[in-house]
Protein 1
Amino acid sequence: MEIIKDIQSAFLPELILIIFILINIIFSLFIRKNTYRIAQITTISAITLAGLAIFFIQINPTYLAFNEVYISTIYTTSFKIMILISGLLVILSSNNFIREKRHKSFEFFTIFLAGILSAFSIISSNDFISTFISIELLSVCCYFLTSFRRNHKSKEAALKYLVTGASSSAILLLGISYLYGITGNINFSNISDAISTSGINIMFIISCILIISALTFKLGCIPFNNWIIDIYEGSTYGVGTYLSLIPKIAAIGLISRLFVFIFSYSPIIQILTAIIALCSIIYSAIGGIKQTNIKRLYAYSSILQSGFLLLAASCVSVYGFSCLIFYIFTYIFMNIGIWNTAIIYTTNYQSDEIIDYKGIFYKNPYFSIAYTICLISLAGLPPTSGFLSKLYLFSALSREDFTYLIILFLTLCATVISLFLYFKIIKVIYEKNSQDTKIIKNITFGKIILYVCSIITILICIYPNEFIKLSQIIAYYM
Amino acid sequence: MIDNFIPLIVFTPLIMSLILYSPFIADDEKIIRRVSKGFITIHFALTVLCSIFFNFSNPDFIIETDYQWIDILGINANFAFDSLTMLFVTLTSFIFLISIYLSKSMIKKSYRLYYALIFILLTAILGVFSAKDIFLFFMFWELELIPMYLLIQKWGSGNKQKTAMKFLLYTFFGSIFILLGFLILYYLNFKLTGTLSSDINDIDIISAPKVLRDLIFFLLLIGFGVKLPIIPLHGWLSDVHSQAPTPVSIILSSILLKLGAYGILRFNLQMFNYEFQVFAIYIMLFALINIIYASFCAIMQKDIKRIIAFSGIANMGIFLLGISSLNSIGITGGIFQLFSHAFISAGLFTIAGLIYIKCGTKNITRITGLGEKMPRLMFISIPILLASIGTPLLCGFIAEFLSFTGAFLMQTEGIFDAKALSLTALSVLIFSSIYILKIFHGVFFNTIKMKNRKISDINTKQLTILCLLTICIIIFGIFPFLLTDIIREYTNITYNPQGVF
């Protein structure tokens, strides 16, 4: 009976996802027609049901399931909700793209769901074995998704991702084994207890650095970023959206939990993480300036935003974590907005170059304004949620010690440079193009998602109170 | 009842810009222009009505409205109009009225987007003036970047793309200093008082360590100094002013520079009064550098808009000189200078813009002898140009006179003597007559060079706009007490001046 109670209290959404993955696989054996439509319906219903099931799991007090391997708190649950929201939006926004490219629909959606499942278990795992396995599962899903486009670039990207990802997993495993060697435990709370009694030593710091390296690889931060740009360029837009959200949210969720349990014992790790974050912000702000391909630019933008996320996680405080949650929540909508625009545009005009967006404002004013709002939000200008989340993040940083004040100043300087990256697109959109005026049509559904995202982005800025209050409560009960 | 004016004045332009883009209004040039003109007229009437109801005789009088924004962090959307803000708000609405009425002859394409952006800009500026919360202030401060960027990069002239990006990066670079200062201020206030609040009136950091107070003071001074501009931070200004479309140049020089001045008044002078007193003489030194450097630059320029832009920097130097004197007369003169410069520079840029659209060039060596072709423009530009030089009975004179008197009367110790500084600045002012008369002489006298170009005189509407500005210049020149009384009362209770006159 123990296992039923465990499933009911902590594992219900995951169970639903597993069931629907199996349903998808079974359907794929029998159905030959309308595969896309059916697969999409099953996936959306899986996500919806998992979302409903989240409200039945136990969050207060914290529930430990399966011999303390699996944890369920309000913090993990909030991350799961954000993963589900982004998963749903990714599916809806990549609607036309997947259909027109004639993907093997069932396989695509099955892997998609498996990715969400593994992201769930990364966030919830309370133990290094299950963490490692879930990270591997997520990575495998990402390798497959990257290789879904049938061309040379996609295959190259997938292979590159596989090789670099495998080496990062090896590093993670090495770090875990060192930590096991020091403490004799793999459970987070037990390791925490062991460290607090024995104190830190050099081996502990090395193992922490190894683990942080492997996890920041998944986030795509400096200096482990060399995979991310080519892989974004090689994969389809739908997969790009997926890669920029789900692995990132899962990785940052795990990093923040590890910070609470393990890394917080050594302030060196905290500073190191902040420096990694700062370096990624500066690198991507400068590196993005020269880009002409929209996917590569988005890749730099995603490095930039993961830098901000890591910065929020690195100030280990209630304020920092609540800021992290708020940042991710706002990031989902603006990110979906910009990727969705690219999806809509590419379905119409088959072009990845920024210069081809020239003058789209004149025939598609509302579309362009919505896109501009998302870009402005990523740049961190008002009146958008991106402005507030950055303001909140900076106010969190200003509460830390003097080192963080310097980091804050450098981050602000990098934010100035990053404006260039986003205004590069805005500049092109509003430029007059007399030769051909492009009308974007046929994609009402994608446009609706874009409008919804941009409206939410502005609404969060006007009514942020409840969201920030909620994020503070979540961080407080972490 | 009067409190309801605040949301009505601040937010209706934003709603108007949404209405302009809604499907209800047809994409027809005439309709959009008429709707915009009608709206800005109503808006100006509203601000005038509000200032009639406003009790200027009582310097403590204030109207305010509070809204919840981020309650949990103590950040709220509180707006307030005090006497100074009320004056600035009326000025803003007036300048926008002029610039929108002028837009018809200057803006030829994408007028729908143009008017929408202008209205967003109006909301941003009014928000900065009326915000009572530091982060709200900062939000409106940043909000003004986006419309400004698009206005310059779409309707500008010359190398407009680069200029727009320059404006964006420079101004944002300035605002990170403001943000950093505000964040430290906010957190320090939390540490000292134990309450999370970012309301300007609630912030109390008197007991904070001196070094931190100095740090915040300088961060804010640098941030506002980019906008004002104070000399080493002025790189964006001349390019942006000369390459922005004329109505936007008018807004830039008449209102946007005043945002920086307003920030210095509100934060550096009011909130950090003690620090300002300590560093006043150095600020005065910077003011002197502003006046000298900008005057010399203006003499060397050939682009007519660039000359006016540099004269704007010199005029902001006079403002800085006035307020750094720290006595009632000087501060009053400094603030009066903001208003006088707003009218004068609006007039000057209108003249420059009209010459540009008639002649197709801004180079004063190529524009000569317009006097015979454009007698109306020549006649109406005389008082505006003279006011810019500082001729008595025009408002420029009053501002300069009060500022320099204040600076001269300042008591100082140490190596820099305020009397010497103010006298040096005064003697440099002779250069202003050189470059202004150079414009007048070059443009309107001599023989005409552009023989084969058909140049017509300005029409009645444009003449009316210039007349309106001239009337303001003359009225505030002859009856300066209309403004100075209000400003002096406000100064005496707010800025803690050393010598009360």
Note: Chain B has a mean pLDDT of 89.
Protein 2
Amino acid sequence: MTNSSVIGSLEGESRRTRISFSGSALLPFFAFTGFFLIWPVIAVTLRSLKGNDGQWTISNYQTITHGSYLHAFITSIKLALTTAAIGSLLGALFAYVAFRYAGPRLTAILDSVSAVFANSGGVPLAFMFIASFGVEGIVTKVLKNIGIDIYAGHFTIFSFTGVVMVYSFFQAPLMFLVFKPAVAGLRKEWLEASASLGASSFTYLRRVAVPILTPPFVGAFFLLFSGGFSAYATARALTVGTVPLVPIIIGTLVDGNVISDQANLGDALAVGMIIVAAVGMVGYIWAKRKAAKWQI
Amino acid sequence: MNKKLSKISLFILVGVLLLAIFILPLLAATIFSFKGMGGKGYSFINYQWLIEQDGFWPAISTTLRLAILAAILNLSLMVPTMVFLHLKGQKWKPLVDAICILPLIIPVVSLAIGAQVAMPGILQNTEYELVFFYVVIGLPFTYRALDTSLSSVPLKTLVEASRSLGSNWLNTIIRVITPSIRSGITAALFLSFALSLGEYTITSLLHWETFPTWTVVAAQQNILGAIAISVFTFAAAIILMTLIGLSTHKGSGREIVEEEHNYGMAE
């Protein structure tokens, strides 16, 4: 067999594989998400449009846009915006510093620790903050000994401010993980080019790095917003209902702890949350388009 | 000189922030968890209480099993999908992008209610139904990690080189693409695994018992025990993830990770 015929047969084989690959490559993805993601959402939406008698109605939606339910939506949005802002700024700072100064081994450790922290939005986190900043907490006591009483004002760990503190604990590491690949995408050539044009590293940061990283930053901000908006376990364990948040109300309705005269109210609240988050996602899509400009 | 000064102040700033947000709560909870009977003295009594509780070991084994399965399923679904999108599926990308962002838009609480309504009985009767929803919850993060990583390598050139040397697609994905996006895959793996380890909302609403839901029940009896559980959870998760992280950073992807890391280092 000559060289050219070997190459020829390989090409023929690869062409066949290529065709079958492109034809079926996305099927598993669409089948999986269709069944485990889209279909459950359709089911909830349909049920939210039904009343106690099983007839189609919008009465569930009339209820959730008034009174205490409306107030819960406002509180949830405020919480999500505040924690996304704090988390994204801190996380971006950590990502930049880690990228510039940490070696591969430290980077690996930082990745794993961040992954743990970012997903720690659960009950354990609430207990840890009670141990630190609760009335009997260790940090509270140490600060009191040096003359700072954090409980002198209105602060409690069970308040809105308390929840903001606890959420930053998982928002910032999440930002770190999501944003670090974008920072790592900064090309060495850009730094060299700006340096050879006489730019200081501050100028490089201000004129090159920040403009390029702004779209991925905004995109990540919206990811954090959604995470903060629908976080459930931490807030529930921490506030025991003292801060009214939509996911907690849904959880209580679903668990059957509260008897509601409207059976499918929880479904309507859930769809309401989807609508709020969808509005935020317009910003994400915009940011995504901008970011694509610098991708190679 | 000025550069050095700004570098030092940057490190101090980061150090103070890390201390206030992460190290203090962890430290305080750790000290608290070693408090003795009635808050007097220090001992291992809270940890002893924890291990002696019924269901401690079964809950841990269930959680690990589900998390491993979810991570494997997630990567075997998403790596081929993302590689295809970047190579020749550009027209599909907006749709896949939109689908992958849905788990963030849809609150986990409502996904759980939807699962109860929509899933067939045969799936609802096994704890392995959670694996599928752990994968769904992880999608936005694996998508972004893989997408960013794939965007910063010259994928087309790599593939053309590999293909012109006679490699088939499977080989190209495993031996050329996978090593070059190793940082993205590692991040995706971490996110998926850690997310599954700590998942509480969907697990509890679907009435399964994993370690996170078990701890909540156990915690109701004993607040010091609850804090011991929190510390234990964090320590175990961090040790586990660090071991995985260090082991996946060895081997063939090492050079590329280091090379990526070097971008922006030259001064």
Note: Chain A touches chain B through 106 residues (CB under 8 Å).
